[in-house]
Write a structure and sequence with these properties.
Keywords: TPR repeat. Belongs to the YPP1 family. Involved in endocytosis. InterPro entries: Endocytosis_PI4K-reg_protein, TPR-like_helical_dom_sf, TPR_rpt. This protein is mostly helical. About 50% of the residues are buried. Helix 14 (about 275-285) runs parallel beside helix 16. It is built from 28 helices and no strands. Among the domains are: about 1-145, no CATH class; about 330-420 and about 435-460 and about 490-535, no CATH class; about 550-650, Serine Threonine Protein Phosphatase 5, Tetratricopeptide repeat.
Length: about 650
């Protein structure tokens, strides 16, 4: 029906001039979007059809905010986030013209908007005296209106996309500022929940900029902005559990543990199945060194949550089970952790099975792990609290798995790497007294300044290849006719799968290293390298492994640490371990420079960095300054969770 109607409109209408608005086309677009939503047509084919129709209709309109708005929402639902970003910026440009026109005219639009009426003089000539613009603006105001509420809603949805999928926090911050300016327009009368979402997204973007800020003053500024934004959002809508969760997470990264616990409990009270909130509460309790209670919270959170096949929720399940395994290892030793890690690999197979099947070269390590531990998994099915709702017991389904070959085509070396029971029960404590999560794979690589460097959501935030900003040729919101082309949403999911699998292998490698099983640790790191060769944490683990080898020690370790720093210049754990290696070679000046850069920047809350800096400072004879560093390091260590709060997803 719409194809026939569209063909009829194409015969009647041509490309409009600046003073023309074809309302039948805009009415058809509005009705089509309503019909798609009413029918629940959210499949890829249905959304592709709608998006292509919107592209074609944009040719018969002149910067229509209706078409731009529908394009933004439809492209986000479709999963083409890069195209949605282009449409969002086009929409944002029209909204900015609206604000500029309001400032120039000094009068409020009683009808709620005219932002689809850009000045014709800006488009047709630089000399406004050559044009008669008075008849143009009233006509467009009369025939096409865009309410302030629709503008703000679209900007909020776009900002959420930039924060969640593209990691462009500064762009999101600017867009939310535009939304706030629109909300203050006379006569806007926006609902409280919409305003709450505006402040919520402002808080999220400010929080992410704060995490990536190298300058302490800038970090403090955005931290306060984030807290204020969350408070305003809660005042406007106190029933949103997600706002409470982000508010608590900001308190947690600011080391305000008491307030964070109170706030996250409110989030759990509003939504008992919020896995991230349970995970945050477990980390907060672990920072108080009450590990038994933290483990119990993990178990309760897994039972309360019934996560389904939604990207955000399944990622929360992985994060929650990793936290659970780390606490279990701390309480019961590395030998028990080896058995629990097999369950993590099984969970990974259930979540990312399709990715493993379609890209075998990235997931070969999973095959040998699941096959090796098939008898063990059935025994753990009856162990309550260890697996929670993420594992239903029984044998491992390996039908979707492929032959065990690595990315280079050779047979996987992981077969037999992880035996059913480790030979010894002894463990190794890290040299800095860290809990079992010591190592780069459990740290957070807080890199960049939030200007668009993409990071894949996962256990550790690193610089995953292909994430973040995408480069397009041709520009504009051009049409895409290939329905088989991979969507950016699919690309992000595959990158998340690769990174999660690499994290699991690195966690296992750290456990083997603590057990003194160096060959198994090296094999596990090799599997992580096959999955994700550009991951800084892989080379950090190689460096830690070489440091334990008497024949290599610090020289080989430094070479691997430098590789990790080259791949991730802002990766905090790698830089700290590199500084320690230089200290062992009596190169205190180099180590001091690295540690000062870390502690002044995003690694200000890393206790080990301050401890090492105190040692180098003491070597320079600065006793009082070294004592201050040690006191601060002790405060951080006493409030240190089992893994960084930044590892949780925003």
């Amino acid at each position: 029906l719409y194809q026939r109607y569209e063909a009829l409109l194409a015969v009647v209408y041509r490309f409009p001039q600046a003073h023309e608005t074809y309302m039948p086309i805009i009415d058809m677009v509005d009705q089509a979007v309503k019909d798609w939503e009413a029918m629940g047509a959210d499949s890829r084919t249905d959304m592709h059809t709608l998006v292509q129709m919107l592209y074609r209709m944009s040719r018969y309109t002149y910067n229509s905010l209706h078409v731009y708005r529908h394009l933004v929402h439809s492209l986000i639902r479709y999963g083409d986030y890069l195209e949605a970003e282009l449409a969002l910026h086009a929409y944002w440009g029209e909204c900015k013209r609206y604000l500029e026109q309001k400032r120039v005219s000094g009068t409020a639009d009683k009808s709620g908007g005219d932002s689809s009426a850009p000045e014709a003089a800006d488009r047709l000539a630089t000399d406004m005296t050559q044009l008669t613009v008075e008849p143009v603006v009233p006509e467009r105001r009369k025939v096409e209106q865009e309410s302030v509420s629709d503008m703000v809603q679209t900007l909020v949805v776009g900002a959420h996309m930039l924060n969640t999928y593209l990691d462009k926090f500064r762009d999101s911050h600017d867009i939310i500022e535009a939304a706030l300016a629109l909300s203050k327009e006379p006569g806007s009368n926006l609902p409280g929940r919409l305003l709450a979402q505006v402040h919520h997204q402002m808080g999220v973007s400010a929080s992410q900029i704060c995490l990536r800020a190298e300058d302490p003053e800038k970090r403090a500024k955005y931290q306060e902005l984030a807290l204020q934004s969350y408070r305003k959002a809660i005042d406007l809508d106190s029933s949103d559990a997600e706002i409470h969760y982000h508010y608590a997470l900001q308190y947690a990264v600011s080391r305000n543990t008491e307030q964070a616990v109170l706030t996250v409990k409110q989030a759990i009270g509003l939504r008992p199945d919020h896995l991230n909130a349970w995970n945050l509460l477990a980390l907060l309790i672990s920072s108080q060194k009450d590990y038994h209670r933290a483990l119990k919270i993990c178990e309760v959170g897994c039972r309360e949550s019934e996560w389904c096949d939604i990207d955000a929720e399944i990622q929360q399940a992985v994060l929650s089970h990793i936290t659970q395994c780390l606490i279990y290892e701390l309480l019961h030793g590395p030998q028990s952790a080896v058995q629990l890690h097999s369950i993590l690999f099984s969970l990974y197979g259930r979540i990312y099975g399709q990715e493993a099947g379609s890209h075998p070269q990235n997931h070969t390590a999973l095959i040998s792990m699941t096959l090796t531990h098939r008898p063990l998994l059935a025994g753990f099915a009856a162990s309550p609290g260890i697996v929670g709702s993420g594992y239903t017991g029984g044998s491992v389904n390996t039908n979707h798995l492929v032959s065990a070959t690595t990315a280079s085509g050779r047979p996987s070396s992981s077969a037999g790497v992880v035996p059913l029971l480790p030979p010894t029960s002894g463990g190794e404590k890290s040299e800095s007294g860290e809990p079992p999560n010591s190592g780069s794979q459990d740290g957070k690589s807080r890199s960049g300044d939030g200007t668009g460097t993409g990071t894949a959501a996962g256990t550790v935030v690193g610089t995953a290849p292909g994430t973040g900003t995408g480069t397009r040729t041709g520009g504009g919101t051009g049409s895409r006719s290939d329905t088989t082309k991979e969507l950016y949403k699919t690309t992000l999911r595959r990158q998340r799968a690769r990174k999660t699998l690499a994290d699991l292998w690195l966690i296992s490698a750290a456990v083997f290293r603590r057990l003194g099983r160096m060959k198994d640790a090296q094999a596990a790191i090799g599997e992580a390298e096959n999955v994700y060769p550009d991951y800084p944490a892989v080379w950090c683990q190689y460096g830690l492994l070489m440091r334990r080898d008497p024949s290599h020690q610090n020289v080989a370790a430094i070479r691997h640490f430098l590789t990790g720093v080259a791949l991730g210049p802002q990766d905090i754990p790698t830089r700290v371990h590199l500084a320690r290696a230089y200290m062992r070679l009596n190169k205190a000046a180099i180590a001091t420079g690295l540690l000062q850069e870390v502690t002044r920047g995003t690694g200000w809350d890393v206790a080990e960095a301050w401890t090492l800096l105190a040692q180098t400072t003491l070597g320079e004879g600065k006793v009082q300054l070294a004592n201050e560093y040690l006191v601060f390091a002790l405060e951080l260590e006493n409030a240190k969770p089992i893994r960084p709060f930044q590892a949780l997803s925003w």
